[in-house]
């Protein structure tokens, strides 16, 4: 430094600190203190890192376990509540289903009971007799071999006649004679023929007229009933009924008469021709004209008749009596022996009321409850020596 500058420095006072701070640019810092950092050596950092990881892992594990436990508890509470309400709902549904089943079963049982009772009433002897009114069996015969039959319904209120012509060769169950040509039934009498046709058609016939083959064929060909009563050879009609029905028939036009042949299928056996009735087509006619359903056994007692007395014709006599009362006879045959002293009414389906009905119709017999799995007949009647044929 020069002497002039040293002199001037001695004369001028030094600047204050503030004046240095207010200078145009900051002075450069020559020393900055750094914050103290923890010292990390190789071993310390390794131990700290390993221990820290373990602590962090343990804490994370504990936290996860706590979260899982809390979540599980929550799910358990929710599931428990859901299961509780689900159980209550399921229980309610089960109760409702049981109530529904019980109610439905009760209703169905009551309906079946009422239907069965109604069917039994509809097929009582009194009801069958009432339904037979207006039904007439016209038998055409030449007096030598067999007969043909015309089962007719006389609807006097509507002024109409409907009829089904049954040929001589049609095979049916004939009471007392078994399964054979219906024409052969007339050999045992018109009552046997009426029973056979009533049994097959499930339509009761209790009145008949016998006419010549010519009169029978003319009625069928011309679709006319005029003059038929004048050609009667034999009948069980009273004179009053015969006169009334004769006047009714003579007043009908052909448009009011419908006589159709029984639907059959011809079968040739050797030199003989037989006819197999076609039940499906027969059923349509019966339902249309008589309002009965062929093959419907609801409320109808089905019976098999065995001759246990040894007297020829006994099974047929009993069968006729039962058929006229609305019982359907499935078969008639001989019993295993002919020394039965009393008639046995063997109930196969457990319906003892049916057995009591059979006993009431016949007026004799002992009812025996002997259940069976067969479904051919409801009752088996073994006719004993105590049977007496009805008078007349």
Write the layout of secondary structure elements.
Layout: H1 3-11, H2 17-21, H3 42-122, H4 125-131, E1 135-141, E2 148-155, E3 160-166, E4 171-174, E5 178-181, H5 190-201, E6 208-212, H6 213-222, E7 232-235, H7 239-250, E8 257-261, E9 264-269, E10 272-277, H8 279-289, E11 302-307, H9 314-324, E12 328-334, E13 344-347, H10 352-362, E14 366-369, E15 379-383
Parallel strand pairs: 1-6, 3-8, 11-12, 11-15, 13-14
Antiparallel strand pairs: 1-2, 2-3, 4-5, 6-7, 9-10, 13-15
Helix pairs in contact: 5-9
Low-confidence runs: 16-23, 111-120
Distance between the termini: 180 Å
The string of secondary-structure elements, in order, is HHHHEEEEEHEHEHEEEHEHEEHEE
Assembly form of the protein: single chain
Helix content: 40-55%
Domain module tally? 3
**CATH architecture grouping of the largest domain:** 2-Layer Sandwich
- Helix run count: 10
CATH-derived topology of the largest domain: Nucleotidyltransferase, domain 5
Main beta sheet: strand number and arrangement? 6 strands, mixed
CATH class of the largest domain: Alpha Beta
Number of beta-strand segments:
15
What does this structure look like?
The structure is a single chain. With 392 residues, this protein is an alpha/beta fold. It has three domains: 60-122; 131-295, Nucleotidyltransferase, domain 5 (2-Layer Sandwich); 297-392, Alpha-Beta Plaits (2-Layer Sandwich). It has ten helices and 15 strands. The protein has a six-stranded mixed β-sheet with strand order 7-6-1-2-3-8, with helices on both faces. Helix 5 (190-201) packs across helix 9 (314-324). The longest helix has 81 residues, at 42-122. The protein is elongated and about 130 Å long. The model is unreliable at 16-23 and 111-120 (pLDDT under 50).
